[in-house]
Write a structure and sequence with these properties.
With 231 residues, the protein is of the alpha/beta class. The protein has one domain: P-loop containing nucleotide triphosphate hydrolases (Rossmann fold, 3-Layer(aba) Sandwich), CATH 3.40.50.300. 38% of the residues lie in helices and 26% in strands. It contains 10 helices and 10 strands. It has a 6-stranded mixed β-sheet, with helices on both faces. The longest helix has 16 residues. The two termini are 31 Å apart.
Length: 231
């Protein structure tokens, strides 16, 4: 289980997260919803050690990981697919995946498992990442994170700008990883995509906790979305 305990995070003098707490269990998809600028991406970066904490803790299976440098957070078993994918565009699909494998010294069986999930990448294996379509690049970013054999998977806007067939492909993989016991935090603006896969939804507003509920309950009470998101 991943736990965020009263995180306070700032960019310089501007505080973004304010005593923000969250937990996601193994085999669960938790969607983090909030308006633009609410602190969703900041939460992801704080988990990964890419932003220093003013106070609070990030705990993975009872181990405090918020004191670790970012590369050791990944090595502890947290896979991160950032908004915008952040691929090594000049490198091939194979080389981008190899970087993921190196983080935890994952073997060839992990590589094969990832390519089974994304057969399109096997076809594009020796192409440079910059030559892939947007959907294929999202597949590659996800595949690279899965090479860590993660306990926790963080996805920030994974369907942004993708056509429906690619969105469905990414959705299927997210569900597969949930069913394999991975804890997943999903940041997504497309509410319809969220409710089709999420187990629970947690709201964030101005860097603070703003309630949580099951996805099923949210589907039965759509007025709550308007209350929290203005949609």
């Amino acid at each position: 289980m991943l736990e965020l305990k009263s995180l306070n995070v700032a960019y310089g003098q501007a505080q973004i997260l304010r005593d923000f707490s969250l937990e996601v269990r193994a085999g669960e998809i938790l969607c983090l919803l909030g308006r633009n600028g609410a602190g969703k991406t900041t939460t992801m970066k704080a988990i990964m050690g890419l932003l220093p904490l003013m106070s609070g803790q990030v705990v993975l299976d009872k181990d405090v990981i918020s004191e670790l440098p970012a590369h050791k957070v990944a090595a502890a078993g947290i896979g991160y697919i950032p908004q915008g994918r952040r691929l090594f565009s000049e490198l091939t699909v194979a080389q981008n995946i190899e970087i993921g494998l190196m983080v935890r010294n994952s073997g060839p069986e992990v590589l094969e498992g990832v390519l089974e999930l994304f057969p399109r990448l096997r076809e594009r294996y020796h192409q440079r990442a910059q030559t892939l379509s947007g959907g294929e690049q999202q597949m590659l970013a996800t595949a690279r994170a899965l090479c860590l054999e993660p306990k926790v998977l963080l996805l920030d806007e994974p369907t942004e700008g993708l056509q429906p067939s690619m969105i469905e492909a990414i959705r299927r993989v997210i569900v597969v990883m949930r069913d394999r016991g991975v804890a997943i935090i999903l940041v997504e603006q497309r509410v319809d995509a969220v409710l089709s896969v999420a187990d629970r939804v947690s709201f964030i507003d101005n860097g603070r906790n703003d309630g949580a509920m099951s996805a099923a309950d949210l589907q039965h009470n759509p007025s709550i979305l308007k209350q929290h998101l203005g949609v």
